[in-house]
Amino acid sequence: MDLAKITRFCDHLAEAERSGRGVEPLTSLDPQLTVEEAYHVQLKTMERKVNAGARIVGKKIGLTSRAMQTLLGVDQPDYGQLLDSMVVEQNGEIAFTQVLQPKVEAEIAFVLKHDLHGPQVTAHDVLMATDYVLPALEIVDSRIANWQIKLQDTIADNASSGFYVLGGRPVQPDQIDLSLAGMALYKNGELMNTGVGAAALGHPANCVAWLVNKLSEFDMPLRAGEVILSGALSAAVDAKPGDAFQARVAHLGEVGVRFTT
Question: Is residue 227 a contact partner of residue 110, using CB atoms and an 8 Å limit?
C-alpha cells in the first residue's frame, strides 16, 4: 500500500470540504487507483475525523440497485461510515452551506442489538441481531466535482456520504416483510418516485449481510447500537435551497428534512 498516495488523496478530498468546491476525480489523478486503495483513503479520512473529535455511529451501504451497479460497471455494493456529525433530527433543517451538491434517497435503517462479525453472515443472522428498523432519508453528497465519479472515487469519498435522518417509529423486523415494504418519496409535496424493499438486493437485510462480510476483510465488525443505512429504494433526487423532502414507508411511518439557504 502506497501510504503517501493514500495521504495525498485524503488531503485532496479534504480540500473540497475546506473550500466548498468539488475537486477533480481521484481516478483522473490516478487511473490505476484500486478499490482496496480507495477503501484505505476512506479509512484514513475517518481516522482523521475521529482524531478531531467525531464518533462513528454506524455504516451506510451504497450501490445496492442493479441499475446503479450497471451504471458504474460493478457487481457489488460499496459502503461508508456514519459519524455523529452527520445526524439530522427528524423534520430538521440542513443549511445549504453545509453541502456541495446534495441528493436525497429514501432507505430503511437497521439499529443493531447485537454485534455482527463476518464472514459468512446471512440475512437471517442480520434480522436476529436487529433491535428495530426505521424509515430514513440519506443526503448523499460528493466532494468530486459534478458527480463525475467512478467506483473508486465514491468509495474513497466515504461512499459519497453527507447527512442522514431517522424518522417513523421503531418496528421489530419480524413484524414486517421488509422486501414488500413500499416507499414513496416527496419533494415539496410532489411525489418524485416510489420503491420497495426488494429494490435493495432483494431484501434490505441482504445488504447488511453483504456489509458485515465485506467489513471482515478489514477486520471490522458491526457493533450493537450502530445504525445501518441499508441502501436506496429508488433514485436519488437533487436538492436545492428551500426544498423539503418527506418519505413514507409502509408500516414504518414518515421521515422528513428541509434545506435552508
Answer: yes
Q: Which of 3, 9, 6 is nearest to 144 (CA)?
A: 9
What domain count does the chain have? 1
Answer yes or no: is pLDDT of 71 > 90: no
Task: Dig out the grid coordinates for 197 from the structure.
Answer: 424493499
- Measured N-to-C along each axis, helices 3-19 and 35-51 cross at an angle, to the nearest 10 degrees, of 60
CATH of the domain at 104: 3.90.850.10
Closest CA relative to residue 24, chosen from 142, 145, 141? 145
The candidate with the shortest Cα–Cα distance to 63, out of 21, 93, 105, 26, is 105
Please state the φ and ψ torsions of residue 128, each to the nearest 5 degrees: -70, -30
pLDDT in tens, 118-133: 999 999 999 999 999 9
Q: Which domain range does residue 224 map to? A: 3-260
Dist CA 68 CA 70 (whole Å): 5
Q: β-strands 244-249, 253-260: how paired? A: antiparallel
